[in-house]
Amino acid sequence: MQLDMQGISHRVGAATHLYPLDLKLQTGAVTVLLGATQAGKTTLMRLMAGLDRPTVGRVMADGVDVTGVAVRERNVAMVYQQFINYPSMTVRDNIASPLKLRGGMDRAAIAKQVDQLAERLHIEMHLDKLPAQLSGGQQQRVALARALAKNAPLMLLDEPLVNLDYKLREELREELSQLFAVGGSTVVYATTEPAEALLLGGYTAVMDAGELLQYGPTAEVFHRPASLRVARAFSDPPMNLLPATGQGGRIDLMPGLALELAAEMPISGPVTVGVRASALRVQTRPGDIAIKGSVELAEISGSDTFVHVHSELGSLVAQLTGVHYFDLGAPITLYLQAAQAYVFGADGALMLAPDRKAGH
């Protein structure tokens, strides 16, 4: 489905839930709506589905104005945070329900498709159970299988993994990216987690406080955030942001500590330097600048260590590959290449981004 949101906004009384925006989704691709809680993601999805009507603007589906068309008259599949299954039906019947409603398939064809979906989502051993007999992760897999069975041209998933434990989230994230890749639906997936957007790929729409900040291919939005607001939203851990002063080909972080830019840039006056945690290292390389500080906290997460440092430039977080141990309060020096820094102007707009070859 080609879904085109034209100048839509949504207000409830005096409260604005969604500010005017234009968004034309890529047909047959995954679009991630990324933003914190109350960014406007669910409001936008409800407008896409036809559960709500925009206060202003139009919703176009394959060139047809469907702004006033109710959700029951649209071919849309939805998966929510909560596991919504028919409690009195077995898993098999839950998955088969949209196939039976659609009609035109005999019992053998329905059974075959149900078996295939159950196998893809690793719930084939639970087909004759009721949803109440399943774990939360298994119930969400059933809801996903039912949505996939509908084979709707538009599939909306509103933070479907948020209530699952970490291990289940990791498993389902990878499975979903594979399922979406082989499906033909236009998929919209809402999440608060940048890692999910990067894993699912496709396109990302970054939202904040009811505004659409940037939309484009996920890798492009991540590597070239259009503004400080986008950089804050699309970074985990949060991007390190440092006040600085531009001096043409140099960015002064503090007296005696500067980033020498590769080329003369029309940058002068107050700027903000952004440094992703993964760009900071504890091993030096030629051309590095050195930032001295002390260890405030070291967290081991999976195969990475996140080191919180009280530095001469303020608080910094470094993401180090591997497991590392640091004594609290111990002196530490972080190293950074100038080519790995972002520069944002006084208005928050991106002025300079790292070359992708610089390690981003």
Description:
It is a single chain. The protein is of the alpha+beta class. 24% of the residues lie in helices and 35% in strands. It is built from 8 helices and 20 strands. The chain has a 6-stranded mixed sheet, sandwiched between helices. The chain has a 6-stranded antiparallel sheet with strand order 13-12-11-14-19-20, with no helix packed on it. Strand 9 and strand 10 (211-217) form a beta hairpin. Helix 2 (91-102) crosses helix 3 (107-120). The protein is globular and about 75 Å long.
Task: Please summarize what this structure is.
The protein is of the alpha+beta class and 360 residues long.
Give the helices and strands, then pairings.
Layout: E1 3-12, E2 15-24, E3 30-34, H1 41-49, E4 56-61, E5 64-65, E6 76-79, H2 91-102, H3 107-120, H4 136-150, E7 154-158, H5 166-182, E8 186-191, H6 194-200, E9 203-208, E10 211-217, H7 218-223, H8 228-233, E11 240-247, E12 250-254, E13 257-260, E14 268-275, E15 289-301, E16 304-311, E17 314-321, E18 331-336, E19 342-344, E20 350-352
Parallel strand pairs: 3-8, 3-9, 6-7, 7-8
Antiparallel strand pairs: 1-2, 1-4, 4-5, 9-10, 11-12, 11-14, 12-13, 14-19, 15-16, 15-18, 16-17, 19-20
Helix pairs in contact: 2-3, 2-4, 3-4
